[in-house]
Design goal:
By secondary structure, this protein is α+β, with helices and mostly antiparallel strands. 54% of the residues lie in helices and 17% in strands.
Length: 194
């Protein structure tokens, strides 16, 4: 099957991935756009995993100030090189994440940052709610309740406010795939008048 330039443009516009990677994904999917998106997402995770241990030596600060001047956020988005850190798409990504932080006020960037005592207290509360559930189901229900509770507090697990179909974590993995470097949110800060 021949891949048209219109198909390539549509997939590139939808994913932001390079033309060559889009072409390979469309060929692998036999021209099926939905399958190609799935293939690219799978490759995005693989690329992010491969690059996750690389040293971060550059970055940019993204900022967002709400039009009421009552809420502001800063995000330090790190990359391996200045070449990527100064890329306009990278700078825009940092600003988009800062807008997310201003809107949602997450407590943590990753799940690993959640203190053990906070996890223990949440587990205690949810276990009390599970007393009347079948014993074999309790662990799975507890896991679901914990994930739902912390999802809004952990930045990388939040759905992006401009596109609920992707999470901030998936956006970061997409940046790793797009730029070919390790990309990570290092620090976030939010200020509000109220």
């Amino acid at each position: 099957m021949e891949i048209t330039s219109a198909q390539l443009k549509e997939l590139r516009d939808q994913t932001g991935i390079s033309v060559m990677q889009c072409k390979k994904a469309l060929e692998e999917a036999g021209g099926d756009m939905e399958k190609a998106v799935i293939i690219l997402r799978k490759k995005r995770s693989e690329a992010a995993d491969k690059k996750s241990d690389r040293a971060l030596g550059a970055g940019t600060v993204g900022y967002y100030i709400h039009n009421t001047n009552e809420v502001a956020a800063l995000v330090l988005l790190a990359s391996e090189t200045d070449f990527v850190a100064k890329n306009q798409e990278f700078v825009l990504l940092a600003k988009e994440i800062a807008m997310q932080v201003a809107a949602t006020n997450p407590s943590y960037i990753t799940k690993d940052e959640v203190p053990a005592e906070v996890l223990a207290k949440a587990t205690e509360v949810f276990q009390a709610e599970l007393a009347d559930k079948p014993a074999e189901m309790r662990e799975k229900i507890l896991e679901g309740k914990m994930n739902a509770y912390f999802k809004e507090q952990i930045l990388l697990e939040q759905a992006f406010i401009k596109n609920q179909d992707i999470t901030i974590g998936e956006m970061i993995k997409g940046a790793v795939q797009k730029f070919g470097e390790n990309v990570s949110i290092v620090k976030i800060s939010r200020l509000a008048v109220k």
